[in-house]
Amino acid sequence: MTTVFQTKKITLNEAFQEKAAKKLQKLDRFFDDATATIKVSSLKDKVVMELTVKYNSLIFRAESMAVDKFDALDDCVDTIIRQIRKNKTRLEKRLHQGGDLFVGFEDDVEETDSKVVKVKRFIVKPMDVEEAILEMEMLGHAFFMFRNADTNEINVVYRRKDGQYAVLEPEM
User: How far apart are CA 144 and CA 139, in angstroms?
Assistant: First the structure.
């Protein structure tokens, strides 16, 4: 597995990078040639770690905040493994032609069926990001889909865990 480190307001020593590479070897049983990106930043007295694993067209992502960067790394790796186990059957079907994602993998977690329980339709009117955030707040939602007046594309604005806002835009 290829590992890429990105830092913000923090420096990572060689010992942590080696430990992280060793910890990510747990994921080698699922992926034969994946890329892991570890983003580490400092927020007050805590470490925020984001682990993104890309394999073919799949992306697995986990985020953790802890006092110790090793604890944050452990949480992220465990979260990724949990995501893989939870979606094992669907992932096997999706990658059936492409590679051995689950060679020799035994799972003791029951699969849960995901069902769509409601379909909601609404008119998507053009608006700017600030207006979309206002609409989202007035509705009390954590996200809001809208047509961006500047680009005429469908975008999604959402509230992050840190209270800030982010926008999802389609890539062309």
Answer: 9
Task: Say how far apart CA 6 and CA 23 lie, in whole Å.
Answer: 17
Apex CA 80: angle with CA 140 and CA 65, to 5°?
A: 60
61 burial (CB, 10 Å; 0-12 / 13-18 / 19+) is middle
* pLDDT band per the 50, 70, 90 thresholds, residue 161: confident
* Cβ-based neighbour number of residue 39 at 10 Å: 15
The SS3 call for residue 68 is: coil
Q: pTM for the complete prediction?
A: 0.62
- β-strand 143-148 against 154-159: which pairing, if any? antiparallel
